[in-house]
Specification:
The complex is a heterodimer of chains A (132) and B (132). Chain A has helices at 4-7, 11-15, 24-53, 58-65, 68-96, 100-130. Chain A has 132 residues and is mainly α. In chain A, helix 3 packs across helix 5 (68-96) and helix 5 packs antiparallel against helix 6 (100-130). Chain B has helices at 23-54, 56-66, 69-96, 103-130. The chains are: A mainly alpha (132), B mainly alpha (132).
Chain lengths: 132, 132
């Protein structure tokens, strides 16, 4: 014990706010359910989109994305993949980046970029189907 | 000082240099590498959707890149990274149930994931070139 103020504190009082955040299980489960969704969505998209679009032409792309089944599947793929990759990159950042400022800055970028891209990509698919 | 050590003083993962190179180690490292690569792929995917929604003129600026040598190489690597991350992700979901954790089983499944990452893009290329 180092000083008079700490000597008065209980063991619980000393460790409180210094340990786990208590949110690890939620992160673990979110990685798993998005991975199960992606194990279905990603192979479906790669095979069906590459067969339908082939050379990446505009009309074939629009045809593919304006089919209702493809549009819903693509939106689900965008949401699941961007959420999953944000959770995964969060683990990588926490494992390898130890400087507090850099770590927090990267965590904020990693939270924001997928959110912005996801909103843009979902809006893009919706506007292709319902837009002008 | 009372309480837990500061975050930067906490123990980190074992350093790579103390481990002998083996298949399960390679599979773990490849999982991170392919995941980080797919982070970039998902960003391109979101931009591709937004370019399609932006109209034919905007889309015409990105479409020619798909058929160039570097565009085809990037697409090939994305499919390989996706195939690896998919196979190894399923491997990890099996690990979560407590199965497949003996060194022999883990080695075999690691090699299966690596071979699947080699076979899947070749299979897709063959399907697109000679199939339906």
């Amino acid at each position: 014990m180092s000083g008079p103020t700490t000597r008065m504190r209980s063991a619980l009082g000393r460790v409180r706010h210094h340990g786990a955040s208590g949110e690890g299980t939620g992160h673990f489960i979110a990685i798993r359910w998005t991975s199960i969704a992606l194990a279905l969505l990603a192979p479906w998209f790669v095979v069906s989109a590459s067969l339908a679009i082939r050379d990446g032409g505009y009309l074939a792309t629009i045809d593919f994305l304006t089919d209702p089944f493809n549009a819903v599947g693509t939106i689900l793929l965008v949401i699941a993949s961007l959420y999953h990759m944000s959770l995964g990159m969060q683990e990588v950042i926490l494992d390898y980046i130890h400087r507090p400022f850099t770590k927090v800055a990267l965590l904020l970028i990693n939270a924001g970029v997928p959110l912005v891209l996801g909103a843009g990509a979902v809006f893009a698919v919706l506007s292709l189907n319902f837009g002008v | 000082m009372a309480g837990a050590p500061r975050p930067e003083d906490r123990p980190i993962s074992p350093h790579l240099s103390v481990w002998r190179w083996h298949a399960t180690m390679a599979s773990s490292i490849l999982h991170r590498f392919s995941g980080i690569g797919l982070y970039g792929a998902a960003i391109l995917f979101a931009f591709w959707l937004m370019a399609a929604a932006a109209g034919q003129e905007t889309y015409a600026q990105i479409a020619p890149h798909f058929t160039t040598w570097y565009g085809q190489t990037v697409l090939y690597l994305i499919v390989a990274a996706l195939a690896y991350h998919l196979a190894n992700g399923i491997r990890h979901l099996v690990f979560d149930t407590g199965m497949g954790l003996t060194p022999t089983d883990a080695d075999t499944s690691a090699w299966f994931a690596i071979l699947f990452a080699i076979a899947a893009p070749i299979g897709l290329w063959a399907l697109l070139s000679f199939g339906a």
